[in-house]
């Protein structure tokens, strides 16, 4: 078969279109050390506009979802811009939790000016430490001891006077008051002696009754006196407490007056200190009790640590958010890599005491939302959604514009431990989620709240148009990354080779890939090889070596498949002819590594009822896109051939030796060629690999992975021996996507391999069969000796045979 016959219906792609390499001389520099650094990304104007809008919008529901594949620089660009923008904003207020003396289980949230929360916390520690000393000294002072002694003596004398008066009265009535272990007893006296029981019983009855009535009457009076004793003691205690409050109040008020002066302009602090003063005065004995518990020793300064005593935690300040030291000025920018519920919205910790879990307001811990309050919070969307209750909690906080603190156990009703109910802290946070496009589509479709809360999206471009300007910018990006990562400068040749790899990754000769993460990894590996070669710059050979080594590390499966083809375990012909058989091309992806492999596609046809059997679909190995492509073939055949007779075909299609799933429609053109070959009986040249999808009009449509598919078939031909008649047939629309390996380009240049572009099925038939496909003439029929004419004649024959068979199969009527 001549080359002219094979290519007269297709376009032989020239060598210059197979690989659009960058010329190092066109870059205008020797190494990247000569270039100005370039901050930020290139080609992401659309995404950056959305980021700038999200940063500047005041509305709380204009949160941002940044979408795009990994390796696009999404995190770095968002973080860099927001950090710069946050530095221009006002610092947010501090937040702290303090004790609610009226309801300790409901701690109060204090909103304080920036930097005040820590000062207030330290001041309260000093207040407690100072008062622990001052109040203890006050209770030990002579003035206090004298005043308390006067009160005690006063009430003691009053009680003794009452009892003495009663004793005199009883004595005047010949009744004695005796103290016994059982209490106070009253007994009769006669002749100056206590009347004992036996003597009392010997007295006349009238006298006994008189004595009993007298004792009972006095007993009532004594009981009344004794009942008044606790009242007097309570009064004494009240006087003591009043004394304590009066004297302690002066000390507390004096010390807290200093604290008030330190925060004179802050009303919320003034109100808080007023409640503290009231509680301290009412619990003055607590200072004395805690002071007395201090261990004796040579270090009297240990008393200054009173604020660490659990009894004084009620007066501490739990700082939730503040700016300290050398923290960046402006609004905060937070990133939470593990967005669990507790790390996102805060938590309440517990300690075990005597087998019970205890907590107080000092055990409230802040989350990322607290730290980001007044600024920005960046989260990984997939990680956020994978954490239990984290996504619902974030939505609740955004909707209520506040941060309630609840534990996961409480949310799921797993524990019944008594906990706290802290005041929710008002929230003003712009949340930025970073994820892929599929995740965004799922959220916008399935979660009705998502679109209301995240009204902005920043969609990162995956490629940029290739031009002199963009290549210059790309070179500066490479130079900037090399410098910032401490790598060697890159030569113009090295930059050009990296650009070639960017073009290949973009799968378009007119574009550059913006997957800068993968290119940065390649650059670091090339820098390593430059170091091994003792070079001061990274050259093109280093980048090429890095590309080859990366391919080698990932190509074990590909090499095993090539070996199976060489050993005829997988049957692939690259020479000769066969009817109803063609080499389809597919792409296999393993992680980020793609490689092409040929697959034998066969078709068998016979008379039938118009059914096209897709064996892959029948055994549930074919995906929906592949099944769609096969159904399109049926539409093409029925609308192209034998238009005036029933479509009387039964055909079967299969990917031979395919043991995994098949999806996509890029093999539909190859399948149609196999069907037409089987129908017409015209053999197909097996030296060609075919890729491309087809529509019902017979037009060949573009597919993906064209470079990998061509290279995969080239390797198969190389293993079986290049003959010069081999090649790959691709859609004409894919010519602009070609960025083939250099060895494939060299083989085409040497005439050992070909790449042919086609636009229609008829063009492909001419290339594959070497015969005229045939077009309908004025009479409405195909020329009889053409491929289409033979296929149509076969279908007409099927229709006629089917008609004859149906007529012969009709039952004959029988007479009576």
CATH architecture of the largest domain: 2-Layer Sandwich
CATH T-level fold name of the largest domain: Ribosomal Protein S5, domain 2
Helical fraction equals: 40-55%
**Straight-line N-to-C gap:** 68 Å
Keywords: ATP-binding, Coiled coil, Hydrolase, Nucleotide-binding, Protease, Serine protease
Coiled coil: 208-235, 540-567
Catalytic activity: Hydrolysis of proteins in presence of ATP
Enzyme class: hydrolase
Task: Give me some keywords for this one.
single chain; 816 residues; alpha/beta; Helicase, Ruva Protein, domain 3; Rossmann fold; 4 domains; eight-stranded mixed beta sheet; five-stranded parallel beta sheet; 16% strand; elongated; disordered N terminus
Question: What can you tell me about this protein's structure?
Answer:
This protein is α/β, with parallel strands linked by helices. The chain has 4 domains: 24-43 and 462-558, Helicase, Ruva Protein, domain 3, CATH 1.10.8; 101-109 and 320-459, P-loop containing nucleotide triphosphate hydrolases (Rossmann fold, 3-Layer(aba) Sandwich), CATH 3.40.50; 116-295, no CATH class; 573-803, Ribosomal Protein S5, domain 2 (2-Layer Sandwich), CATH 3.30.230.10. The chain is built from 28 helices and 31 strands. A hairpin with a 2-residue loop joins strand 5 (175-180) and strand 6.
Short structural summary:
This protein has 816 residues and is α/β, with parallel strands linked by helices. Helix content is 47%, strand content 16%.
